[in-house]
Records
---
Amino acid sequence: MRAVAIVNGSARRARGRIRDKLSRALPNGVRFTESLDHARLTIRAEIARGVDLMILGGGDGTVVMGLTLIAEACRGMGRPEPAIGVLRLGSGNAIADTVGASDDAPRDLARLAQGSGTWKKVPMLDVLGMRAPFVGMGVDAQLLEDHEAIGRVVDRVPGVRRVVGGGIRYALSVALRSVPRFATTARPNVVVTNLGSPAIVMAKGGATGARIATGQALWSGACTLVAGATIPFFGFGLKMFAFANSDSARFHLRCGDAGLFEILRNTPAAFRGEYFSDHVTDFLCDRVAIELDRETAIEAGGELLGRRTHVELGLTAPVTLVSLDKVP
């Protein structure tokens, strides 16, 4: 089995001594990339050589962009896509959580290169031509927007960039931008329409028995969050999609209008995968259209895709992800 690691050289956790440790874990098999174009060229070269396992190092955004570049290269060369391993090296690590990646990235890399782990096909979502295991419009995408805005300010201050890490930046963005914006700005109105096979209405105990036919509205009203996923995690350890693994032919869609205080009060439950509310409605579906009355931020796997008033979200071809068991 030929394995190669593509590591985001800009990832905060991929700097300093960790680079040497990663290189020793997979001798001559680690490629540090410094830009999107560099990553594209590197991935194309490795696909051309032939690779069975491509290990992506970074956060959720790095992994999602890597999946896009891998698909692009494989289509162009008529090659099958390799299996995908993930190293926890970013700020948002929902995909790393899903595959059991630990905080010891060099050890995980060595284990993956030696053939450890379980290979499993995981469905992806298609949105605006990108594949991702989760997509969101609303508060999650706003958090990413605010984090990027705070990051630009921090990076302009000499000497501060090196000492203000990802966790502090997120805390600053939530306190200084996200909470004030959420508390003072009216939420957009949204209509979510089922475009695929009958959608299954879910509740805390599972399927309710209700189904919504093609062409009918699943949900409408003021929107705090509309998000879909094929994996349970949503970044930062939040286990927001309890039904993501319930049906391989459908993804878990959550639509909600919860207010600020409910969100803050239920954050611990969200980390446990136990957040259910009268203000959140859950579905299993395979394709939907989302219409909003104003441009709203959208993110796919932690990657901001701009602002939209219309988006279609549907299942697409699966990716083979390699999951690692915990080391005692």
Note: The mean pLDDT is 86.
---
Amino acid sequence: MKIFRYAWTLISSTVLALGAAHAAIPYETETSPVKIVVPFAAGTGADVIARAIAQELGTLLKRPVIIDNRAGAGGNIGTEFAAKSPPDGRTLLLTVNNTIVVNPLLYRKLGFNALKDLQPLTLISTGGYVVVVRPEQGMRTTADLVRRGKAEDLRYGSYGVGSMSQICTEMFQAGMGTKMRHVPYKATTLNDLLAGEIELSFEPFGGVRGFIQSGKLAPLAVTTPYRLASLPDVPTLSETMPGYDCRSWVGMFLPVGTPVDIQNLLQQKLAAIISAPEFTKVIDPQGHRVDVRGPAEFGQMIQADYAKWQQVIKPLNIQLD
């Protein structure tokens, strides 16, 4: 019996020692894969940005970095998965402002709290939407849109009730007094816009860039407070409606509780990737521009954004569950 007891003690001690040794391996020398969760489908703007980052981050960390697309429920499925993942630096979340500061105002029964369960790591980029119409409609300026939006029964498309395209449009309507009808879509609005079933839409630039270049759609304005580098001659809505600002952003997050040294290492690596000139070439076609902000500044921006959208969304009386 003593022999068996001794053998069991030896085995247990060895297992514990191996476990402790594994736990003590510094994060920067680990070789296990890092996962970047994207709560949207492959090919979307966020996915394109995530894949560009993953390739470079894998090189800097000397370990595989893979993309895990978990789309559905307006981004809530993937965001919840990331928020509930172990806080060990092996799971990151790349997402947009909707899932962090807008969806919590639209859904009452989320299985996570984006403001408490996720640690902001870095802001990556900011962008906006482009107001597009068909050229043959004769609208050339925002003033044309306002005049016709008050006098005619114009229809605007969006990517669904509670989508940023709807919210940006309703912000504009509230400020300018137009009465355009909302036509929500589950997928793209572009087929019906091109076919004349709706008159306009607030669209992500990446999705309409080709149509603008081919002349099939005409851009009237952008929703950012600055003109887009890709559309320098297209005015901002704020030039007509002072104070208007309906920006989107892309950021990286970690589950709350991730060790500070891991946060710092990842933030440094990501800042180097995002600040490189090559990265600008990736986000320019998406209508975004680099905007690097560390955890503290990014966190403050998120809190301010949440307060802003709370004031915008409440009068719209939108609830999705």
Note: The first strand starts at residue 34 and ends at 38.
---
Amino acid sequence: MKLNCKQKLLCPNNITRFSIHIDKNIQYPNISYIRSPVFAIILDTIRNSSYYTNDSTSACIHIAPVDTIDRDRRSKNGDYLYFIEQRLKFFPEWSDPNKIHLIFNHYTGTWPSYHRTLDFNLPSHYILASTSLTYSNYNCLSHLTFPLFHSNYSFSSSSSSLPSRSILLSFKGKSYEDVQHHRTFFRHLNNNHDIIIKYTDHTNTSDDKNEYIQLLQQSHFCLVPSGRRLYSYRLLETLQYGCIPVITTNDNELIILPFSEIIDWSKSVIIYSNASLSLLPYYLKMISKTQRNDMQKQCLTIWLEYFSSIQRIVLTALHILNDRFISSFSSLSIQY
């Protein structure tokens, strides 16, 4: 089901064309505040897009080149940027109450609570492209649903054909037993025949990765539970291999899937309550082969059109924003 946001935003200062500007650090122009490869590619894609303007005064929205992708202080990948408030002050547009700012974020909070609030003050007007949105905290004027993916995620091309699949349902990943995660219940679904559940509570090897991909290719349905946070990398991985995502969720946390502004996910994924996991195999077996094939084809189509590269993901986000603003350039087709 698509999000339906009937409200529209206006570009400030009577700007009639949706455009985006990457702000400049005038005081220290040679210092970079980019930590993650993902954020670097996001900025490069914006800079090379038809929406980019080098003129700050004619921009509809702004983005400060200060890396906000990873706001987990315990992050082990080195992408967490310290003293972010002080660094944002080097960009005058950030404190301008008349500017609208675009902010990208994958991770908020840290162990053990993983709060979903950012650890820095937001500007007066902003649009947050976030991976941790639910229907209870989503605002169509200040939020943009965004996918979660590894910085080393493989965007290699996937076959558009549907291979022969013998496994009804599969899962391979961590159990998170230390936090009594609902993933621990998955073991009760395993029958070592057409339902395969495997836990990897250790450092993943290349053999683990290869087996995981084989399971995606051989399964009709793949479990996509949350990780320690609300979202999971698995959504894009299952789409890539044409395995229908079964997104398990708590009844009180209805997550919003990425780009729900333009994608009707009801035709390609199954949202299933953790409270009824024991009945999941019976539910999946009731889905006809025709419906299953249609859903698998839709998974591949969605992945190819919206998620098959970081550049495609970023341009899709810009296209959604373009339609959100009242301008003479609304509903432009995306150019890749």
Note: The first helix runs from residue 37 to 47.
